[in-house]
Amino acid sequence: MSMPKITVFMAAYNQTNYIKKSIESILSQSFTDFELIVLNDGSTDDTVANVNTFNDERIILVHNESNKGLVFTRNRLLDLAKGEFIAILDSDDIAYPNRLKLQYEFLKSNPNVVLCGGHANVIDENNKKTGQKLNVPVDDNIDLFMLFGNPFVNSTTMFKRTIFNEFLGYREYAPAEDFDLFSRISEKYRIANIDHVLVEYRIHSNNTSFSNSDVLFKQEQKILKNLLNKIGISESGNFADIHIELFKSDYKLKNLNNYLHFFDALKQANGKSNRYDQLRLERFLYQKWLQILGSPNVDMLILNWYFRKEVFTWGNFDLKKFRKAFKKSIKHVFK
Which GO terms describe its molecular function (predicted)? Predict the structure, then answer.
């Protein structure tokens, strides 16, 4: 087979119940110039047998000698991938038919973007939609969004293979190794999400994010701390707790002043480090502030809170977004 334009990578460990649908969703793509690497990470069920039911030369089945875990398994891409781009799909998720086409065309049309993702619909163990949708930010502030959380659904991501190799793949941040990689890429290159639903993301009892939720959170904390250090903030004491609340969107009325102090510290530190464009950061923090004031836990209707000097300037004021946030506050109070 000639060099494919896309390498689709699917790590698999004991996914006999779901992997056939995942593979079928890739083989049914409208974009056909790809290779599908399925890497069996020491499965002990019928995962391999299910993969072998397919007769398609684009499928490449590779085995680890034993169960090595996601970081080791995904880093085998450094040697195995041949495509110009790498697309990730977890072996329990399902890609929509135009997923590869949409992302390939976007990345080719925007050569300065090296990584992109999209939205996802949530399904359950029985392939039924739950009604939940994982919406990701689609504006130009995704790198800033990372200060408060992972802006990507991993199973929707596609990135340039050369960039993956440049950063030497994933580091030992499992199960948040994807967030760590994306945050490092964002420090040097432009990243994006496209405003399309690309996959069905499956929620079930064996999800890594559920089975290892405590470990996941601890690793995410390390990554967030790394991002703050790059700005010039050494997270300690009260800021650490405040940052966690903001990361979890667990806003508390009693901590409004602390959030403002944290935002002001971000602005002051960035003014010295120039990690981000200062005006773009200030505008982003003000939108974050409006989000906090409009949240159900806060229900803040006192107007002067919307115009606090720590976050407000007329330069970053957006009347449309202000009205939207204020109406949301009114709705929460009088519902």
Answer: hexosyltransferase activity
